[in-house]
Give the backbone structure.
Amino acid sequence: MAVLKVIEVLSNSEKSWEDATKKAVAHAAKSLKNIRSVYVQDQSASVTNGEVTDFRVNVKITFEVD
């Protein structure tokens, strides 16, 4: 039987929500093994002078505990 744990991670990107999600997983993978999935819980963006300048995601990352 596998034991799974879920952590919540916030990330941002100047490119896209997809890039912010990839950054969150890549950063988490530096200290976590056996990442199984990522769930995008929330998305938001910063706007400056009528232009989107920053994409933000709140993700839940699921990984297997050894």
